[in-house]
Structures are given as C-alpha cells and as structure tokens.
Amino acid sequence: MIEQAAGYRYGRADGLDVLAELEPWVARNLDRHLAATPTCYPHQHVPWGIGSGFAGPLGGRPWQPEEATLPQAVRDALIVNPLTEDNLPSYHHKIATRFGREGAWGTWVHRWNAEEDRYAHALRAYLTTTRAVDPVALEQCMRHLCRGFAYDRPSVLHALAYVTVQELATRVAHRNAGQHCPDAAGAALMARVAADENLHMIFYRDVCRTAADILPDLFLRTYSEVLEAFRMPGQGTAELTARAARIAAAGISDVRVHHEQVVLPLVRHLGLMDRTGLGPVGEQAHEALARYLEDLRRRSASLEALRPRLTSPARAGVPTGRDGHGGG
Fold first, then answer.
1. Which region ranges are annotated with the description Disordered (predicted)?
2. What secondary structure does DSSP assign to 286-308, as a single string?
3. Cα–Cα distance measured from residue 187 to residue 37, given in angstroms and rounded to the nearest whole number
C-alpha cells in the first residue's frame, strides 16, 4: 500500500508508486476499451461531395459570410471544439510525462493520442467542406496553439482527476453542439465524436475509482482541488472567451451544464460524497467539495434566472462562469 505521506501531492517518486499500483487496472481498462471501441472512419462523416476550393494558389472562390448558414452559437462551438482538439501535441506531452510511455500506461497514452487526432481532422474537414466558417479566420485562431496547454499540477492523481473531468466536459460539449446543429451531417459527426470521447472518459473515470479506493483521503483532496480550479483548455484567450460566451448564452455549454452533466455524474459515480472512514485530510476535502457543489448549484440557479435576458438579441455575449465552456 502506498504511504499517505504529507509530501505525496507533489512528489514524483510517490507518483511513480501510484503508476505501479494502478498499472493492473490500467491494463484491464485498456483491454475493455479496445474491445468496446467500434471501427470508425471519420472521413465517412464529412460531406466531401458539396465541397469546393477556396481562393488561393489553386484558384478557388473566396469564402462569403452568407455561406455560414449555421446558428452563430453552433458555429462558435464548432470552432472552439476543433481548436482545443488541435492542441493535442501539448496534451499528449503533459500526460505522457506523468503516465509514462511504457507498459499499459504507455499503450493507453499512444492509443488515446491516435484516437483524439482523428477528431481534430474530421471536425476541421467538416467546417471547411461545408464552408460553415471563414477558413482564414479559423487559421488565424492558430495562435491559440502557439500558447500550448499549461497544467502546473505534477502529480499523477491530479492528472488523472483533470483528464476525467476534461473528457466528460468534452463529450458533453460535442454532444450538445450536435443537438443544436440543424445540419444532419454536422449533427451526426458531433454524435460520433462524443461517443468516442465518452469511452475515453469511462477509461479515466474507472481508473480514478480504483485510485479513490486505494488512497481515499488523498484522492478526495485531489479531486476537490481539480474541480474547484477546473478550466477547459484554451480559456483566457480573447477569441475563445467571446465565443464561449455565446455558447453559454445558447445553453450548449455553461455553468448549469457543467454542474448537471459533468460534475454531479462524476461525483456520484466515484462516490466522493459517500466515502466514510476518512482521516483529517479526507474530511477537510469532503467539506471543501460540499461547499464547491453548493456554490456551483447556486451559480447554476442564478444563470437560469438570467437566461431570458442573456438570450435576447441585444446581448452580444455573457459571462460563462469559471467552469463552463466547450472544448476537446
């Protein structure tokens, strides 16, 4: 059993112990993931037949604003989601340096990377083929990628907790964007991506469940810290903040969605509020988590009370709250 030392949270040596302790469960969940993942060819979900070239060296026609026929909030979601997916190299680096590249952990990290990579390509192909957005503006948003993804928590448990929340938030963002998308091909693509993201979430969630059983006090503290500080990749950049505001106003992804469709399902499945026999660290974390959940509930209720005003045509955007916007 791993010693619950005070320096565990940031100790790399202790982190390696966690990797070894969880390796059998990682292998088990990896086998299940491979068996459950259907054969999927993302290119089959892109309506290539309606595509045409753009202005440039090959002599296509310029993009025109009237070609953007999808609702503004859906277009925003379909830009934000691929941009966060495009940051995959940065995410891969972060988890590979924490989980390693060997054994079951390494096999999972590389498999996850390969599956995620397909989504970014398929989403970008859909946007350009259907001419749903200005491709030049989409490319100009690449400066988001130049910033990379910063995550300053070095421990394995923090990384596991974060990716579990992030994968479920990503699944919800894709699924809800698809449900708001009036184009059948776009809706089908979003549903396909969301289904695969859900399998990633299940993998991480179930490994987290094992970690919670092994180290209940430390895991509870870690998960509480991650939930309170959670941000989707890309938050803080001006172009994504404005789009996230419109996404929230439309109800695609906001603090209510984050509360009801991300945080509460994870807390319940992991049994975080039902853990007993905790030590002082776990009890303090239990109280902190309860306060966070209540604060999130209140902010969610406040947002719903404001919803009619936020969706009025006169409003250009609304604050999303610190937890809620879509991503990948």
1. 307-328
2. HHHHHHHHHHHHHHHHHHHHHHH
3. 20
The identity of residue 78, as a single letter, is L
Q: How many domains does the chain have?
A: 1
Which pLDDT does position 238 carry in this prediction? 65
d(CA 310, CA 189): 28
* Spatial CB neighbours of 138, under 8 Å, sequence gap ≥ 6: 79, 82, 124, 127, 128
Query: Would you tell me how many other CB atoms lie within 10 Å of the CB of residue 298?
Result: 12
**With bands split at pLDDT 50, 70 and 90, how would you rate the model's confidence at 40?**
confident
Q: Which residues contact 158 (CB under 8 A, 6 or more apart)?
A: 9, 222, 225, 226
Q: How far from chain centre, in Å, is Cα 173?
A: 8
Q: Domain containing 254 — which CATH number?
A: 1.10.620.20
The number of residues making up the chain comes to 328
pLDDT of residue 244: 83
Going by C-beta distance under 8 Å and a sequence separation of 6 or more, which residues neighbour residue 61?
52, 53, 54, 55
In a domain, 325, yes or no: no
320 lies in some domain: no
The pTM score is 0.85
Residue 43 has a pLDDT of 87
DSSP 119: H
Chain centre distance of CA 266: 13
pLDDT in tens, 46-78: 999 999 999 999 989 999 999 999 999 999 898
What is the Cα–Cα distance from 313 to 303, expressed in whole angstroms? 17
227 lies in which domain range? 10-43+67-310
| Distance, CA of 52 to CA of 69 (rounded, Å) | 16
Question: Does the residue 57 lie in any domain?
Answer: no
CB crowding 303-318: b at 16 or more within 10 Å, else e: beeeeeebeeeeeebb
What is the band of 138 on the pLDDT scale with cuts at 50, 70, 90? confident
Residue 316 to residue 298: CA distance in whole angstroms: 24
